[in-house]
Amino acid sequence: MANRKAVVVGAGSISNAWFDPLADEKVEVAGVVDLDASRAAGQIARHKLACKPSDDLNATLRAVRPDFVVDLTVPDAHCNVTCRALRGGCHVLGEKPMAASMAEARRMVRAAERTGKCYMVSQSRRWAATHERLARAIAGRRLGTLTTANCDFYMARHSSCFRVTMDSPLILDMAIHHFDLARMLTGTDPVAVYAHEFNPHGSWYDGDVAASCIFEMTDGVVFTYRGSWCAEGWPTSWHGDWRLIGDRGTLVYERDREPRGKRVTRRTGRGKKPTLEPVKLPPARLKHQAMRGALREMLRYLRTGERPQTECHDNIKSLAMVFAAMESSRKGRRVPVRT
Fold first, then answer.
1. What letter does residue 190 receive in the DSSP assignment?
2. Residue 317 CB neighbour total at 10 angstroms
3. Is the pLDDT of residue 289 over 90?
4. What ranges do the domains of the chain cover?
5. Lowest-confidence range among 36-40, 145-149, 159-163?
6. Of all helices (H) and strands (E), which one includes residue 92?
7. Beta bridge mates, 253
8. Taking the CA of residue 335 as centre, how many other CA atoms within 13 Å lie in the half-sphere pointing to its CB?
9. Closest C-alpha among 35, 39, 90 to residue 63
10. CB atoms closer than 10 angstroms to residue 35
11. 4-9 and 91-95: which strand pairing?
12. Cβ 127 vs Cβ 292: under 8 Å
């Protein structure tokens, strides 16, 4: 017997990453909705689901009355789908990015407040065991006081999907992962940014698919980001390659390998080299969960009322980094990050 009931909205390729976790967590998929009902039917057949396809979200919500909706639509549709689901009496677990604009994101937050429903965003990198260990190491001051976080992300993503025609595919669709991860790892929030977006020669994208950003964060931390989605030849990890620097040491996390670093154990005087030792990360508390991590936090909320870490009031801060970076690039100057 299923514990909870959900409706999945959006039957594109990303939905294939969600149906197994939903089944594993004993969530009944009571409906699949897509603008193309035949595509919804195809996913129902492929994943052997006992529900009907639909192209009418409102009718499906009335007929099924799910506990929550899983919004897997394209970013431009997130606001409409999420607000309709919230108003329809459902909690919502949505794919990133939260919205296609800050105005839409604020509308979604207000809808969650007015309906008393939970809206959370799946930021899958938060549920990677290594990232959780890094965040705990930094919070535990194993590097002393954190001062700097650097992330490099370079990939050559060849695709013919909607991202190819986006104005800012890297920043809006991919860098949101790294920006949110920067907040998680450092335990800080954005204050201001100076950014430059560009579309390199040879790019197969229409919009700016590369960027360099400098973020000022709370507690005096500086986060720098360099990335490209059309960089051939030597990719980084999808999680990005990171260097985290404190006043007593450094951690390096590259290509998904075990992080390594050294920290000061004893200072020997000004101008002299200090004594160093390897930085040890705390043991893992979880296995890599990705979508399962987000789903489990939603289900825990339904059981206990404990708010998910990526609930909309928090996740809008990560989205604000995205739109502030794009604004800075357009204006050619430093801009504040506003939620």
1. E
2. 15
3. no
4. 4-122, 128-285+320-336
5. 159-163
6. strand 91-95
7. 242
8. 20
9. 90
10. 13
11. unpaired
12. yes
Other Cβ atoms within 10 Å of 273 Cβ, number: 9
Looking at every residue in the chain, the average pLDDT score rounds to: 95
Correct CATH for 128-285+320-336 of 3.90.1150.10, 3.30.360.10, 3.40.120.10, 2.10.260.10: 3.30.360.10
3-state secondary structure of 244: strand
Identify the CATH number of the domain defined by range 4-122. 3.40.50.720
Dist CA 251 CA 243 (whole Å)? 6
Integer Cα distance of 276 and 248 in angstroms: 9
pLDDT at 88: 96
pLDDT single digits (tens) 116-137 = 999 999 999 999 999 999 999 9
Cis previous bond, 97, omega within 30: yes
Q: What is the pLDDT of residues 225-281, one digit of tens each?
A: 999 999 999 999 999 999 999 999 999 999 999 999 999 987 766 777 888 999 999
Q: Rounded distance, CA 134 to CA 116, Å?
A: 34
